[in-house]
């Protein structure tokens, strides 16, 4: 969009940068000596400062400059990265966010306080030997650099870089030719020469970096301070293809979430292509329509009708494609909790590891937004109530650091999100005492374990002996439950004393996309979520006849019961000669569904059923097929349950 | 909760309605509720759903149920004719706007009914459930029935939704 507000564009960009910085800082908190992370954070701050100044966010640029300077010292080894520094920069990062979002008024005091803390953190660190050695001004630098072979093709000119270095001070440049290939293999437009440069004079490291700023990401660069300083510093920048590698790439081993965006949604290019295709078709139809409007009247009625149908189809497809664009991976949600857990660990004095799984699972953007608050509550509960202090954990024979595990996966028509901790579990006695005190249950009343656990969802219920800053005010769980239910989801809690608790959220994919298997039963078409499908086999005539009495087939030495959908749905049609069985897995069980025909796989935009069909639980929703028809999406779990009921009735009647 | 829906007559005692036929009876619904009148669409039967709302159609990318009011008024289900149409209406419920197609044998016109000509359903002489009828309105061509959709669909909706439904009429 050409007319886009540059300020808004900057805010989006700044939001992403801040997220990158935050993730980098959080990782740095765990691995203080990881140079790649230090560099990544520094680059983020640097870019933020630069673009902030460019768009007139002067307060932001100034403030960020101080943080950048502080971090630069870490980068150069003048000061070590410390937990305090990371914590200060994290809070500074929050302040930057405020500066990005607002006009900076009334924030000066906060900013100054943070800068004072920053100074303290840096000064405190400066007392350490690393800094002491490096404190003296540099006498000069020895550097070696080599540009990537394609540098000249990309528009870099090494001569200009050398000229710029010369301008910095007294300069001795020696070309290193060892990497030049033999003449036969030499491609003349590639740059194979490296340069050794000795720079003398009072030159700051920044000045040198500025020379290389545009090529820095791809090049090989070694910078050493000249004697008399013994401190040797090597910053080697590994080749990275992107012009601004996100910190995630700096450490591929740590299995991090994908990059996130603030209010913008990242859309996979193929989905945009799909949208583009639809728009292309629309343009063609539009030109047909205008041709018709200007042309002769012969047969125009038919043509008009066909165009109208075409447009109708396109419009609905466009909407479907749009809906797909709304899907975002839960990584965006999980990423937010890293900071939360970091802060909780700091506030509680516990060591907490956050492990995330299944971040690629996609959920509708709106659902995701509404899930954020309940999940914050749940994670707080886990960290604050669930996990023990390191001492208690060691005493209980567990590793000192507690673990909170977030995982997401799709199961049938639902997204299942679990929050699991390995803490002390829910104290049944306390829950009971509290419930009795609040008059929710009678003293001594016998309750199933699950019923007792459900008590914590009661409004105003809290088992925390003391109300802390974090949780224990009893406003959590009932709100969580309400929110999940408003998403038509369910919440389930399991807890083993001493082993931890697991909260499972099941959110239906109301707007979500699933891959489905399109089948035909009688005259109706149905979609079976592909995630539940194990395999498809043919129902042999033999099995079909024999199974009048028992509906089982033997599949790889195991009995698999099956349900005849034609009978369950009372289609009143004759079975196809070659019926198929779709074997589905519900939990540990495998069940076969007998269908008349398997049409194929089908990407499905789930549309919710009308409120009038709320009682028909067999279907998770419906979808619109290419021909405009409607196919119902089977809720396999409910279907199997219903099948059991029907059979029980039959047995009772028979 | 179970009170009948009251008709919101205009200040001048008039009500704009769309009139349509089911068998030999003429029914009317507030014109303001009507979204669209469609030719019959290919319907998808929902197994296990009550026969009153036994199928769904794709209405501009939305899945909407098709209601056969004939069944609520004890008429036999009938084959479609060339005059058959679907009247898409929108009911406001507590949680959402509920769109719904009503299968009709013939759609007549948008007419103005007068309150002075209307009467509540009589206690005797009615084959139908009395609470399904809001009012009977006399016109030159005969009697027009104003059905009580809230009551008819109440069983399928949560009680709260149905209560909200009855206030819009």
TrEMBL record, chain A:
Domain R3H: 301-371
Domain HPt: 1-103
Keyword Transmembrane helix included in the entry's annotation: no
One of the record's GO cellular component terms: cytoplasm
InterPro entries: Bact_Chemotaxis_CheA, CheA-like_dim, CheA-like_homodim_sf, CheW-like_dom_sf, CheW-lke_dom, HATPase_C_sf, HATPase_dom, His_kinase_dom
UniProt keyword Disulfide bond present: no
Region annotation Disordered: where it falls in the sequence: 240-265
Protein name: Chemotaxis protein CheA
Species, as recorded: Sphingomonas kyeonggiensis
Taxonomic lineage of the native organism: Bacteria, Pseudomonadati, Pseudomonadota, Alphaproteobacteria, Sphingomonadales
From TrEMBL, chain B:
Classification via Pfam families: CheW
Matches recorded under SMART domains: CheW (SM00260)
GO biological process: chemotaxis; signal transduction
Residues in CheW-like domain copies: 14-158
PROSITE patterns: CHEW
One cellular component term from this protein's GO annotations in UniProt: cytosol
PANTHER family: CHEMOTAXIS PROTEIN CHEW (PTHR22617:SF23), CHEMOTAXIS SENSOR HISTIDINE KINASE-RELATED (PTHR22617)
Name under which the protein is recorded: Purine-binding chemotaxis protein CheW
Species this protein is from: Sphingomonas kyeonggiensis
């Amino acid at each position: 969009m050409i007319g886009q507000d540059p300020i808004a564009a900057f805010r989006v960009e700044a939001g992403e940068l801040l997220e990158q910085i935050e993730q980098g800082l959080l990782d740095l908190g765990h691995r203080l000596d990881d140079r790649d992370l230090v560099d990544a954070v520094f680059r983020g701050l640097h870019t933020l400062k630069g673009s902030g100044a460019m768009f007139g966010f002067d307060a932001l640029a100034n403030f960020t400059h101080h943080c950048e300077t502080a971090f630069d010292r870490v980068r150069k080894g003048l000061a070590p990265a410390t937990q305090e520094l990371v914590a200060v920069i994290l809070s500074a990062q929050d302040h930057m966010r405020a500066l990005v979002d607002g006009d900076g008024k009334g924030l000066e005091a906060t900013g100054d306080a943070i800068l004072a803390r920053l100074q303290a953190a840096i000064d405190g660190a400066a007392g350490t030997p690393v800094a002491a050695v490096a404190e003296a001004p540099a006498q000069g630098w020895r550097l070696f650099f080599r540009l990537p072979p394609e540098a000249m093709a990309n528009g870099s000119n090494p001569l200009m870089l050398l000229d710029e270095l010369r301008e910095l001070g007294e300069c001795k440049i020696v070309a290193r030719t060892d990497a030049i290939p033999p003449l036969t293999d030499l491609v003349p437009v590639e740059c194979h020469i490296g340069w050794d440069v000795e720079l003398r004079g009072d030159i700051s490291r920044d000045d040198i970096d500025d020379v290389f700023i545009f090529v820095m990401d791809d090049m090989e660069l070694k910078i050493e301070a000249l004697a008399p300083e013994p401190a040797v510093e090597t910053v080697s920048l590994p080749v990275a293809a992107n012009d601004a590698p996100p910190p995630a790439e700096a450490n591929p081993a740590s299995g991090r979430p994908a990059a996130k965006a603030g209010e913008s949604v990242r859309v996979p290019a193929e989905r945009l292509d799909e949208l583009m295709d639809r728009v292309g078709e629309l343009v063609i139809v539009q030109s047909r329509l205008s041709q018709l409007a200007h042309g002769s009247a012969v047969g125009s009625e038919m043509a008009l009708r066909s165009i109208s149908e075409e447009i109708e189809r396109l419009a609905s497809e466009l909407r479907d494609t749009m809906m797909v664009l709304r899907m975002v991976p839960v990584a965006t949600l999980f990423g937010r909790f890293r900071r939360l857990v970091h802060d909780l660990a700091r506030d509680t004095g516990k060591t907490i590891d956050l492990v995330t799984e299944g971040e690629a699972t996609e959920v509708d953007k709106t659902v995701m937004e509404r899930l954020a608050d309940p999940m914050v509550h749940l994670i707080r509960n886990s960290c604050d109530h669930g996990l023990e202090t390191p001492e208690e954990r060691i005493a209980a024979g567990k590793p000192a650091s507690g673990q909170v595990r977030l995982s997401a996966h799709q199961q049938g028509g639902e997204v299942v999100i679990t929050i699991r901790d390995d803490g002390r579990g829910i104290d049944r006695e306390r829950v009971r005492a509290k419930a009795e005190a609040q008059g929710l249950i009678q003293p001594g009343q016998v309750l199933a374990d699950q019923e007792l656990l459900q008590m914590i969802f009661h409004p105003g219920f809290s088992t925390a002996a003391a109300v802390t800053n974090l949780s224990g005010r009893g406003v959590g769980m009932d709100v969580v439950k309400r929110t999940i239910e408003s998403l038509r989801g369910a919440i389930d809690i399991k807890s083993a004393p001493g082993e931890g608790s697991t909260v499972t959220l099941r959110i239906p994919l109301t707007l979500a996309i699933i891959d489905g298997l399109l089948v035909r039963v009688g005259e109706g078409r149905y979609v079976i979520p592909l995630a539940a499908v194990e395999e498809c086999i043919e129902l042999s005539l033999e099995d079909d006849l024999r199974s009048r009495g028992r509906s089982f087939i033997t599949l790889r030495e195991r009995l698999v019961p099956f349900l005849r959908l034609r009978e369950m749905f009372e289609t009143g049609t004759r079975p196809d000669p070659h019926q198929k069985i779709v074997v589905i897995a519900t939990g540990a069980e495998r069940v076969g569904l007998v269908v008349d025909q398997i049409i194929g796989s089908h990407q499905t935009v789930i549309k919710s059923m009308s409120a009038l069909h709320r009682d028909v639980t067999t279907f998770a929703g419906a979808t619109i097929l290419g021909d405009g028809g409607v196919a119902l999406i089977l809720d396999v779990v409910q279907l199997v349950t219903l099948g059991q009921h029907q059979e029980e009735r039959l047995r009772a009647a028979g | 909760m179970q009170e009948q829906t009251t008709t919101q007559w205009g200040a001048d005692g008039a009500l704009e309605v769309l009139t349509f036929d089911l068998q030999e009876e003429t029914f009317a619904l507030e014109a303001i509720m009507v979204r669209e009148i469609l030719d019959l669409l290919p319907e998808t039967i929902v197994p296990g759903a009550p026969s009153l709302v036994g199928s769904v159609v794709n209405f501009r990318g939305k899945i909407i149920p098709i209601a056969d009011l004939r069944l609520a008024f004890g008429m036999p289900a009938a084959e479609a004719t060339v005059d058959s149409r679907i009247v898409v209406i929108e009911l406001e419920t507590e949680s959402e706007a509920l769109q719904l197609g009503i299968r009709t044998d013939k759609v007549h016109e948008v007419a103005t009914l007068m309150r002075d000509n209307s009467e509540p359903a009589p206690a005797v002489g009615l084959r139908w459930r009395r609470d399904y009828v809001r009012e009977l309105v006399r016109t030159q061509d005969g009697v027009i029935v104003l059905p009580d959709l809230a009551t008819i669909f109440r069983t399928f909706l949560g009680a709260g939704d149905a209560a909200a439904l009855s206030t819009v009429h």
